[in-house]
Specification:
Elements: H1 4-22, E1 26-34, E2 37-45, E3 48-57, H2 71-87, E4 94-102, E5 105-113
Parallel strand pairs: 3-4
Antiparallel strand pairs: 1-2, 2-3, 4-5
Length: 116
Amino acid sequence: MRSAPQQRGDHYEQQALTYLQQQGCRLLQRNFRCKVGEIDLIMELGEQLLFIEVRYRHTLSHGTSAATVTRNKQQKLIRAAKFWLQYHPMNRPCRFDVIAIDGGDLNWIQHAFEAS
């Protein structure tokens, strides 16, 4: 049985997935995990490949959910995306997006950070 935080995470990932599909994105993989990190959603929109981190905060008392995607977390996402691309080679533009859910508000932050 999954823990309460895992169940909550699943719920908000599903909410993000539904929203992104309504925006025209197509799911390629969900909850990709590898030795260097994990990616919540891997999707495509037109010719672009999207690596998406989903974050949720019930309240803003400790800052926004988007602010929790630290430089360290960004580096882990970039490494995981490179790992995924080794096994799914695609000659397409890639980007890193964040779905930030604060309370009931969902915000899709496109091009949230760059791979460097």
